[in-house]
């Protein structure tokens, strides 16, 4: 028997337990172990039935993603062999499910005769999130079991369903309680006692009818979310095959489309991203067992847009939070905005009123800074002014608990300088939330020169209950994300000077896969925010006079076009509507500006637009890696996908660069440098890697 699979006999039932931590993936050896157990049980007259379950924390969470694309050892059995063996079993097989039955795990369960689950278990076919489709019969069996419509939704979204919903849908036949092996055995014994005929999902054909036009409608519904991607469309093709073809032909079609998806660059990118998202939690000098301080209570200082969003994030996680302001009016405004944000979500049906009431009940507003005294973490989100922040941290030092985490949400200021205003710089850390803070998944955790390991570990761990993805970065201007953004935005502006309009640039980047283009993004964020920062910088840190800069964003703000909030920015907006409309006034402004600076406007294609905007991201990302301000290229990818809407199916800017090939990236940078000057000077890391014929993925951490 394989060491990955254990068998115990209980009451004439062979309980087959997959024991392949952490998630009981179907790694090489697991199918062999289960198949051997089935064969042994079939031959044993003392065995009447089987229960298949997972040891440890979960049922089978799917195929082993690390093995994708790798050759299998000769003779190793596959998930297909396993499914065939389950369906051929002459004795009943019951899947007993706790934790997660995902992907290949659920497909294995669908090949069992019955399925029982426990409260808290979850079910899903999340393959689409890896750029593939359920390739072991999931697209053919799930529609047969629960009907085409609900199955199509699950397969195309990759969403998980909780136990009770799974029962209602018919994914599981029963929910059981108590010891899983015992409950599964009892269910199996009952099946045997009642002499129930063996039920195969593949033979069920009574739920395959769909309303006319169902698949067309399904395709229309993913036109936006699935744009540029392969897998969601192939998932629909497969479910359509389930509804229209005999099962064996449907399975054949599924297999062909699975192979196509698996070989696609998108699947490679999404698999990279899956692991990158999990790698970010690993910090070489802050080991997993570093003591963390629990956060039972939070305080947020500043009830503006960011402060309010951060307070909502804590409240959503069930953590009581005190929101502190200096003036009653500002506090009332902040609390009212939070309430209005929740109310909008409730009105849209995405949140029950009771959840809103519970969240708002966890928020206490006050004008008393002394209220930070019982907080485990204090997050400062006040105006971006160093003097104000230093003064505040000095005062916090006197009031906050000795071991409290003192966090700043600054996006532009030096965390070390802020930390130096306290007697405990080791407890000071940056928590750079992204706007809207209650929605955006990214959290840049900024490690100061003196931040201690426990403060880092505690802040990184806090991301989980807050439902954020935390990425550790070092102190530098703009940290990682915004520092890279600067060059991207600059090129977008230069493209306007050279011949583009905002809608041309936005369309090219949207079509590349970004959630939105840079000009729509600026209008959403508010053009005045950067304008203020620019003006401040011009006084404190003026850019070199010979560096090319565009006057366009200043001209826009001088015309009062701050973006969506003034219904006019790079685009114009109808009242109450966020749809950007190209605006002839802006076009005139752009064309006149080109004439004023002596720039002859020319036609610029989408390829050039994308290249010009992405190369600065890659180049600056490489500098950041060289300076040790991000731990891994994958960390930068996670920042860009979750913070800036970079398409996950292209893996992030650094993965994308590797796909282009660094020698090619280097050649493009050198060409642009010779045409346009030092903005394009390649980072030494790109030069080194390209000359060695390597990519960013070859970099080692630590
Ligand atoms: N293969 C290999 N490793 C996996 C894995 C998988 N399917 N799923 C999780 N892991 C690894 C993670 O990389 C992580 O490893 P490290 O500790 O070394 O970082 C570890 O298991 C724990 O994972 P999480 O940190 O994500 O733990 P969690 O408790 O937050 O979540 C989970 C658990 C819900 C199972 C989540 O890991 C998950 O969603 N996994 C992917 C599930 C999936 O996509 N399954 C389908 C696979 S494709 C397939 O099955 C194709 C087919 O049809 C044949």
Unique ligands = acetoacetyl-coenzyme A
Biggest sheet statistics:
8 strands, mixed
Q: Provide a count of the helices.
A: 28
Please indicate the percent range of residues in DSSP E strands (runs of 2 or more): 5-15%
Low-confidence stretches: none
CATH architecture of the largest domain: Alpha-Beta Complex
Give the total of beta strands. Answer: 17
Name of the CATH superfamily of the largest domain: 2-enoyl-CoA Hydratase, Chain A, domain 1
CATH topology (fold) name of the largest domain: 2-enoyl-CoA Hydratase, Chain A, domain 1
CATH structural class of the largest domain: Alpha Beta
| Structural domains: how many | 3
Q: Within the largest sheet, what's the order of strands?
A: 12-11-10-13-14-15-16-17
Note the overall shape: globular
Architecture overview:
There is one protein chain. This protein is of the alpha/beta class and 702 residues long. It has 28 helices and 17 strands. The strands form three sheets. The chain has an eight-stranded mixed β-sheet, sandwiched between helices. Strands 1-2-3-4-6-9 form a six-stranded mixed β-sheet, sandwiched between helices. A three-stranded mixed β-sheet has the order 5-7-8. α1 (30-43) links the parallel β2 and β3. α12 packs across α13 and α18 packs antiparallel against α24 (606-626). The two termini are 39 Å apart. The structure holds acetoacetyl-coenzyme A (CAA). The site of acetoacetyl-coenzyme A (CAA) has 23 residues, from β5, α3 and α11. Acetoacetyl-coenzyme A is lined by residues 22-23, 25, 61-66, 79, 100, 102-104, 107, 126-127, 130, 134-136, 275, 278.
